[in-house]
Amino acid sequence: MAPLMVKETTSQLHELETHAHGLASRMPSLLVAARRVSHTVAHGIHGRHRRGPGETFWQFRHFEDSDAAETIDWRRSASSDHLYVREREWEAAHTAWIWVDLSLSMAFRSHLSETSKFDRAIVLALSIGELLVQGGERIGIMGGPARTGRTAVTKLALSIARRANDPALGSSSLPPAAALGAFSECLMFSDFLEPIEELAPRLERLAVQGVRGHLIQVLDPAEETLPYAGRTEFTAVESGEKMTAGRAEALRERYQQRMGEHRQQLLDLLRRLEWSLLVHHTDHPPEEALLALHGRLAGLEHNYRYRPPAERTRTHTPGSASSGPESSGQTS
């Protein structure tokens, strides 16, 4: 039994090494793609704005029961049937910590998509990093230093590549138990298909530090729909376990039910932590997810001019990365 275990461990290490070398060779093109995506989304927006202490006016928002009466802007409220509060813009640099799942399961790509989950997660992580740096924010890989300036995104890409070459860091499907500063934010890119009982302790350790978290669940469309039929062999990428189904289509309904239950458990966990979830499928443009994520970081859900896409239209395409609760799982 021991020789078999050694053989399996050697095989997994070889796969990790191949995966890491593949990432190293693709990273320059992924960085170029990320900058292209960020420039597309940046057109028409002006960095990242959020409410907080400062002298510059940011926005009006609807008065809430928790607001003090003296915060009401009576001049703005007089021209409407609603009460509005004047908010100022946060003028201190903020830190956003980024984690990308580097495990082998992220390399999956079906015939329904032109890109793997891993490549899409990298492009999204580097793209949001580019937008944050343009807005004057600091970014860093979870467990590493935070940086700002023109080279921050390049150094973030190098940090991701180095971690992919480290089996101890690159093989885990769970975010690290890193010490992050209070009032910072963490952006995590993964398929988040690990059991909730394994994921919850990691997220809770981060939440108790006063960190605001955003999970970006990157999935291949086949992982939602199970579009296979006939005799099909399924192989677990990380464990190597195999299962053969005589009629794969007979599993579809139960499989989709299990996926729905898992996502609901994840949403329940994030609602308790007051974190958010954004679901993105790799057959959709990365700009959709990036725009929705940027809007969430900017606090647009509190802007009186902003209405989520779910409120602007009654149509919904399954798998879209909009800010509506059906697709993104808004929890805050």
Class by alpha and beta content: alpha/beta
From the spread of the alpha carbons, the general shape counts as globular
DSSP strand count: 9
Radius of gyration: 21 Å
Distance between the ends:
50 Å
Structure characterization notes:
The structure is a single chain. This protein is an alpha/beta fold and 332 residues long. It has two domains: 2-47 and 94-328, no CATH class; 51-92, no CATH class. The protein contains eleven helices and nine strands. The protein has helices spanning 2-42, 74-78, 117-134, 152-164, 167-170, 196-207, 221-225, 252-273, 286-297, 309-312, 325-328, and strands at residues 57-62, 84-88, 95-100, 138-141, 185-190, 212-219, 232-235, 242-245, 276-281. Strand 5 (185-190), helix 6 and strand 6 form a beta-alpha-beta unit. The longest helix is centred in the first third of the chain and has 41 residues, at 2-42. The protein is globular. It starts with a helix and ends with a helix. Mean pLDDT is 77; it is low at 1-10, 44-48 and 301-332.
Attribute tags:
two-stranded antiparallel sheet, disordered C terminus, 332 residues, 5-stranded parallel sheet, single chain, alpha/beta, 9 strands, 15% strand
